[in-house]
Amino acid sequence: MRLQRKSPPGTRRRAVAAAAVMLATTLLACTLVVPRPDVVIGTGSPSGIDYPLGGSVCRLFNLDIPRDGRRCVAVPSAGPLDNIETLHDGRTDIGIVPSDVLADAVAGQGPFAFRGPDPTLRVLFTGHADAFTIVARRELGIHSAADLRGKRINMGSPGSGEQLGMARILAALGVSRKDFAEVRELSLAEQHRALCADELDAIVYSVPHPNGLIQDVVRMCRGVLVNVSGPAIDDMLTRHREYGRAVIPGGTYPSNPDDVQTVGVRAVLVTTTRLSDALAYEITKAVFDNFDDFRRLHPLFASLSIPDMVDGTRGVPIHDGAARYYRERGWVP
């Protein structure tokens, strides 16, 4: 039989004390909660332009962290519909949303019909323009959106700006899903592969130009950009102020030596009446007091102008805090 040796009393006391310290430290760690940033901006996919737009706004706002300690964070999201939902439930304070999605959210129509009109949404300012872009297989001779009948098309992934824009354009043309040989709902990367594999005849983007994905699909898969124009589209633009005319200059892509006529939306930084006037003012001030720096933070921002960003809200109210800054600068009455 082996006899167990007893530990000296001092050793046991030290072990008990060490265990108590470890337990207390663990409990303390469990009670520590990382504070929520003062401003959270919902953006989009990290591979898109909305993500660096939100990051640029936060970068300029955060320049004053040493002075006041407030912090802004831009987070990726599932897209514009998700950004509206997270604004409603308070997970974000600002969302980047295309002007057509914003118009539907304010009016309580389309994907927001279940919620009804929303009088709480407010605009801080607008950003870059996205051109609605249909790319078709070159050998099919598709020259305009009206030529898509009977073809295999992608509508865009659920909840995306592509899908909402495509649905509105097809409705303007009097075309429904049953008029196509096949309708799919793929992401940007998936639709690229499907067109190249001859599984689709036409795919859709809502992006600034030039765009790397479109460059690839034109060069590698014989894609050609399609005009979205004509009397039906003119009528749509008259009825829907959230859209504007857009031109993709000839030569932007080798498949299209001539200008491509289409429609476009603006990216809008949207918040709600819950955001304090003080924070809305400081966010707006951070961007426009440092406007030259802002335009250098991404190549697509270089073409932005103050009048476009301040006056591109398409009839949605400007947040009172942002409006106060604009009045101080003499940019609005």
Primary descriptors:
333 residues; D-Maltodextrin-Binding Protein, domain 2; two-stranded parallel ribbon; 39% helix; 19% strand; disordered N terminus
Question: Can I get a quick summary?
Answer:
With 333 residues, the chain is α/β, with parallel strands linked by helices. The chain contains 13 helices and ten strands.
Provide a descriptive summary of the structure in words.
The chain has 333 residues and is α/β, with parallel strands linked by helices. Helices cover 39% and strands 19% of the residues. It contains 13 helices and ten strands. Strands 1, 2, 3, 4, 7, 8, 9 and 10 form an eight-stranded mixed β-sheet that branches. The chain has a two-stranded parallel ribbon with strand order 5-6. The chain starts with 8 loop residues before the first helix and ends with a helix.
CATH topology of the largest domain: D-Maltodextrin-Binding Protein, domain 2
- Count of discrete alpha- or pi-helical segments spanning 4 or more residues: 13
What radius of gyration results from the CA coordinates? 26 Å
Percent of residues in helices comes to 25-40%
Distance between the termini: 96 Å
Main sheet characteristics:
8 strands, mixed
CATH architecture of the largest domain: 3-Layer(aba) Sandwich
Main structural class = alpha/beta
Q: Briefly, what CATH class of the largest domain?
A: Alpha Beta
Strand composition percent = 15-25%
The CATH superfamily of the largest domain is known as Periplasmic binding protein-like II
Q: Care to count the β-strands?
A: 10
Oligomer: single chain
User: What string gives the helices and strands in order?
Assistant: HEHHEHEHEEHEHEHEHEEHHHH
Shape: globular
- Unreliable residue runs: 1-7, 16-21, 27-31
Question: Mean pLDDT across all residues, rounded?
Answer: 89
The count of domains is: 2
